[in-house]
Amino acid sequence: MKQEFNLIATAAAGLEAVVGKEIRNLGIDCQVENGKVRFKGDLKTIAETNLWLRSADRIKIVVGTFPARTFEELFQGVFALDWENYLPLGSTFPISKAKCVRSKLHNEPSVQAITKKAVVKKLQKHYHRPEGVPLVENGPTYKIEVSILKDQATLLIDTTGDSLFKRGYRTDKGGAPIKENMAAAILQLSNWYPDKPLIDPTCGSGTFCIEAAMIGMNIAPGFNRDFAFEAWSWVDKDLVQAVRDEAESKADYDVELDIMGCDIDARMVEIAKKNAEEAGLADVIKLKQMRLQDLKTDKINGVIISNPPYGERLLDDKAIDILYNEMGQTFAPLKTWSKFILTSDEQFESKYGSLADKKRKLYNGTLRVDLYQYFGQRVRRSVSE
Ligand code: SAH
């Protein structure tokens, strides 16, 4: 079976550079592209990236790329790839996704069917099975994806399974949760470091607080879940276990963190508490029912991260205007605190009452949102302190 892989980590639009940085932090060289980051590695790399990447969606193996302007070219191109190095006899291998963009081939169901036929034929040939007799598919699953972009076909195998944003700690989510990997990316885009206080005054199900605590304690985001590749028969289970054990040993549960989440809705606070407990962080994160208008603190140099309701999702327009205005008034006295506010409301700054130092376009699912960034004033310590 294969030892070295061409890999991609897929990422939401706007988050590719964050994913790239995370991959480099694992000691892996990579190239950032639109929607993905490319890198190479072995099975250990697949295990480490799945376990450790906080902001990526999925890790996929690139089996090959070739021009495909006709169904014949597609068939021959797929057939020529070394599927036998990935798929043992008996594998289940659905063509789970076919996507055609700006290409002559555009009928996705046909692309899917041709791809399947070509992989089947290749395996029949390699394993000396008679053509015409379907292959038995009752073993572990290898989800194959085919994407054709500008007449160039790319064949991929998903190693992740459920998207990486599913960490395994979410028991319930409330009306408008932010995805875990998006929350982790925003924390990394912010100027929060684990030695600074962090408050999410509209914490909902607690996603920012939980992700921050996991970053602060160096807990691998995937520690609580499995990945598709772990079920593959040729995957060395000891090696994967060693990667998991190493992750466990790298976690620092003693680090002091100051992370607080509040929400006006007591039911959401209960959900956040349950999620924090599920993540093993119940003692680490302070969660309480409170209106953001009542937020006061004497602490300095902290970071506020908030994903308040937006018109499309939870509240009507008038209520949003008032909420954002009160938010501005409540946060204004916290001069040394940085504030990062994620909303789809393009009038946010005028309602909030001050212009952001920086704005960054992101997508919360398919909804276009902006991260409004207000940097806190630096407090210089006097020499005598
Ligand atoms: N990021 C959260 C979702 C936030 S949705 C998550 O991942 O789950 C917005 C939240 O703001 C809701 O839970 C809502 O109850 C809360 N909220 C609305 N008005 C508020 C106010 N005045 N003070 C505090 N929280 C408020």
What would you say this structure looks like, in words?
The model has no long low-confidence stretch (mean pLDDT 95). Helix 4 (108-126) links the parallel strand 5 (95-101) and strand 6 (144-149). The N and C termini lie far apart (62 Å). This protein has a 7-stranded mixed beta sheet with strand order 2-3-1-4-7-6-5. It has a 7-stranded mixed beta sheet with strand order 10-9-8-11-12-14-13, with helices on one face. The protein folds into 2 domains: 5-158, VC0802-like, CATH 3.30.2130.30; 180-218 and 252-374, Rossmann fold (3-Layer(aba) Sandwich), CATH 3.40.50.150. The protein is built from 10 helices and 14 strands. The protein has helices at 16-25, 43-52, 71-80, 108-126, 180-189, 207-216, 237-250, 266-278, 317-331, 348-352; strands at residues 5-10, 31-33, 36-41, 58-67, 95-101, 144-149, 152-158, 198-200, 259-263, 285-289, 303-306, 338-343, 358-364, 367-374. Helix 2 (43-52) runs parallel beside helix 7 (237-250) and helix 5 (180-189) crosses helix 6. The radius of gyration is 24 Å and the shape is elongated. 30% of the residues lie in helices and 22% in strands. It has 385 residues and is α/β, with parallel strands linked by helices. The protein binds S-adenosyl-L-homocysteine. S-adenosyl-L-homocysteine binds next to loops. This is N6-adenine-specific DNA methylase. It comes from Streptococcus loxodontisalivarius. Residues 45-159 form the THUMP domain. Its EC number is 2.1.1.-.
